[in-house]
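Data deposition worksheet. Section B asks for the primary sequence of the deposited chain exactly as it was used as input, without tags or linkers unless they were present during the calculation. Section C holds the resulting structure in token form. Section D is free text for depositor observations; keep each observation to a single sentence. Incomplete worksheets are returned to the depositor.
Section A, Depositor: J.P.
Section B:
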Amino acid sequence: MLVEVSLSFRNKILIWLFVLFVATSAAYLPAINNDFTNWDDPTYVTANPLIQSLSLKNMRDCFTGFVMGNYHPLTTLSLALDYRIGGLNPRQYHLTNLILHLLNTGLVFFLIFLLFNRNLNIVVVVSLLFGLHTIHVESVAWVTERKDVLYALFYLLSLIFYVQYLAGRRFLFFCLSLACFTLSLLSKGQAVTLAAVLFLIDYHWNGSSLSRRRVCKKIPFVVIAIFFGVVSLMGSRSSGAISVTNQNNFFEQVAFACFGLWGYFIKLLLPLNLSAFYPYPDRVNGHIPWLFWCSLWVLPALAATLVLTRKRAPQIFFGLVFFLINIALMLQIFPVGNVIMADRFAYIPSIGFFIVAASGLETLALRGLRHRYVSRVLFVAYLLMLAVLTFHRCDIWKDSLTLWDDTINKHPNSFFVFNLRGLAKAIEKDFRGAIKDYDRAIELNPGVLETYYNRGNARLKAGDDAGAISDFETVLKLKPDYSDAAVNMAYVLMRQRRYNEAIKTYNSLEKNTGLTAALYLSRGLAKINNADFDGAIEDYNRALTSDRHNPEIYLNRCYAFLKTANFAAAVKDCDEVIKTSPDYTEAFFYRGSALLGRHEYERAVSDYTRVIFLLPDYEGVYFNRGMALIRQGKHEEGCRDLDLADRRGFAWAKEALIDYCDR
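Section C:
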């Protein structure tokens, strides 16, 4: 519907849009200077190879795989564009999130403008509430929630094009709506609700009549929604986000859903005590607290409200149904993840609640001049409160420690949050603080292996090898194929020179999950230290099958060949190292020793001389060159090197001086 408007009315629109963008930008300004957090940001951004290149392979991988059980290739590509522009500068990602939120706020303005017959009072109230509301901070200030603000952009565009189609019957708008719906689904699976919202818009636009023709036109939307819904379920199941062993029965889950629904109403009305994490409650004597059963009253209350408003207050009815359609999948009746609700889930659903609020304010204003002024003053005060709360809430997302400190203050019995704060402290090298948080997480829930693994890592970095081994053993006892724990366990054992135990750990890992080239390299080193040189050579051979250009593998195999007196093979391996790394000191030393073993004294002297040039203090090099020179018949030069080796404290030099130099 390309609406004709007067110049003065158009100016009003431009002024309100200017106010809207300035107010929203000011409220969210602190978010631009925030850092990444350790909550999913590493997987999505800082350690995500998919965003580090816009290559065809990466694009293909984006569209054919999941990230943490979610299918949102368009979101990943948008993060890749940010990486292309700003690398890993968090400001770039936060700025993009804010720009998307501003665009969404503008789109909400135009959607409500089209839906409610250019009623600027409703339009301004809804868009200001959407732009400034504190519950949206999580979606805007958390880089990982790019998927929220991006899917909303295409979701709102799709609805706008659909309303344009209803107004003008132009098929182009229908196609644009369908295309934007698909893009929205490619950004986040939550967009599936749009197919149901279209029926609501039809009802609002045309009244209660729902012809077969109108239903048929929704079929493409429904089919696409079902397809992406199935894909989302597959992703959630693959990541374990949907638990098939959920301890809550269906009726308890309904009670939790009602509690969450009521919680969203409360947070949207008065966004106080917001949290990044809303955990399920602890059971009392095996039962969920009575408060959650009391929340069931919200169902009959909602049903009565819908019946009463369907004809008497159609705007309120529309807003309420819009909210319910969009929040329904997020109410955890079929639980996904381990939260009872989340601020980010309310990003699009909140529009429906704001329509209800705007309609209520308009009704109050129509009662008379006094009521109008009172309602406007109260609304402006409410907006100022929202702006201040949003500004300060953005600061809570400044970094990981600030975020988790705030969350723990509100939910002091969540093992999940203590675990994440422990990780944040470990990143800051506060290993004692991290261990303390992991201790608390284990106290709250001793059955989570990841916490033992994280504590083991912290103990390892704090120098508590015994504690680290204990934690890794706990993990491996219950989950022998926990490869990261096995790798770290072997590392600690190697550090303690417990090579037999390290080899056994690698053997178990090989049996359960297989070894990478790097792990074959590590086990080979353990075997060398255990004097099993043939076993080490076998491991290095396996490592080279998947990593043929790693100089470390060739160098270590060169050393193992040297120890088994296979001098020709040792020379060949060291040649490979020197070919790619011409300044690799150890390679020249080992090759010199192999050449010495093959009686190629002149070449051996040349290699030892190169070692001295690269690293004059390399242990044993003067002794070896001295012996090579003596065997070459150059006794004077050789004895000079042996004398240098003796003065540097090399153990065998004194005896060699007596044997070859009469000293």
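Section D:
DSSP finds 34 helices and two strands in the chain.
The longest strand covers residues 339-341.
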